[in-house]
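Narrative of accomplishments. A recurring question from our advisory board has been how the design workflow behaves on a single, concrete structure rather than in aggregate. To address it, we present the structure tokens for one chain from the evaluation set, followed by the sequence designed for it. No filtering or post-editing was applied between the two.
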């Protein structure tokens, strides 16, 4: 299940994607528009900044802006930064694989095989869904939105 932290991170990133490119936005404005507690949003944006998805600007006209174009940032990237691996179990993860302690044989584990399929399907949708496609920004060469349903 998507955590509240990841939902807020996605909402904040979508808010930034809707702004004029490179124009810093105050945390308070994002928090108000997206109904996110300001303190929680500050921590989320700091984490997104450390990961290189947003940049911050100081001063009177400071705030946060996307570090890359909205079409270059996927939902999967934001979720992985906020929540960690997309897999439902550690044995199905590509980025944080860990054998389950209670599994007698991974090769024949039906649960693992299904969870890998779920991970692959979920990752495919989240990887192809960018901030730009989610807010339906006009892009050169983009004729249709992703077929993924809105998250």
């Amino acid at each position: 299940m998507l955590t509240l932290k990841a939902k807020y991170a996605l909402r904040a990133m979508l808010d930034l994607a809707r702004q004029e490119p490179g124009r810093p936005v105050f945390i308070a404005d994002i928090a108000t528009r997206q109904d996110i507690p300001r303190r929680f949003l500050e921590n989320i944006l700091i984490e997104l900044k450390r990961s290189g998805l947003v940049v911050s600007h100081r001063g009177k006209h400071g705030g946060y802006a996307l570090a890359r174009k909205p079409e270059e940032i996927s939902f999967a990237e934001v979720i992985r930064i906020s929540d960690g691996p997309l897999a439902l179990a550690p044995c199905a993860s590509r980025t944080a694989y860990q054998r389950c302690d209670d599994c007698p044989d991974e090769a024949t584990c039906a649960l693992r095989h299904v969870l890998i399929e779920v991970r692959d399907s979920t990752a495919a949708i989240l990887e192809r869904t960018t901030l730009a496609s989610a807010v339906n920004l006009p892009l050169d060469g983009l004729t249709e939105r992703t077929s993924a349903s809105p998250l």
